Amino acid sequence: MQNKFMRRAAPIVTLTTDFGDGDYYVGAMKGVILGIAPEAQLVDISHQIPPQDVLSAAFVLRHAACEFPPGTVHLAVVDPGVGTRRRPLAIQSNGHLWVGPDNGLFSLVLDCADSRIHEIARPDLGRPDLSSTFHGRDLFAPLAAHLCRGLALADVGPPVADPVRLDESAPCKSANRIAGHIIHIDGFGNLVSNIAAADIAPWGTALHIRLGDCVITELCRTYEEGELGEPLALIGSADLLEIAVNCGNAAHQLGVQRRATLVVEKL
Questions:
Q1: How far apart are the C-alpha atoms of 66 and 76, rounded to whole Å?
Q2: Domain limits at 103?
Q3: Per-residue pLDDT tens digits for 10-65
Q4: What is the pTM of this model?
Q5: Number of separate domains in the chain
Q6: Which end of the chain is more exposed for a tag (fewer CB within 10 A), N or C?
Q7: How far apart, in whole angstroms, are the C-alpha atoms of residue 23 and residue 76?
């Protein structure tokens, strides 16, 4: 049975890892994929995810991988539990296919209506000499290659009803208050939360936004609208609420790290 999301010409496989560029790991995975699916087009999203940083990888996958054409296979390996009893997964969500460990890596892409999740349970789909420390090469890369060649998701293994989800994958919402977290700090020091534009849109732009000792009471449209050197709040390109500093670094100026609590209240 052909997978209905297979791209018939030049199937795309993206790669996202915390392996960096100095070791052989990424090259080995690409070699395995091309050995099975020589027609595959391989695209690097990032190999600079901080080591073992599942939350960072989940954010990158949600906001970069989802821009690719439907039918793309996304291979993601940020896997501090490699070789343990954590499940290996293959997922269909939002018209894409995803392959990687069940450790919360796919938390931000699992809420689409078409999401289907299966455990990778067929030894014949991986390498016979499965390493306990490199499932990226020996299990996930072969499976990604088979999927881009048309392997049906249902043929991978049994369905999974309880994938691991990160605590920061969704904010806590009530009628007049939303409590979220900072889930990403970009290269400019902008603090990106898990509170979506749609969460606060009904409340307008007059809000009470609190991040530690910093209180902001209005949404800006651009970074330049804020006072020079002062914190501001706006909806960024990911459609998420951000705290930034006009011509400054909000993370440094406010002393905020990821997972800090951000509270928005309706005025």
A1: 13
A2: 12-155
A3: 899 999 999 999 999 999 999 999 999 999 999 999 999 999 999 999 999 999 99
A4: 0.90
A5: 2
A6: N
A7: 17
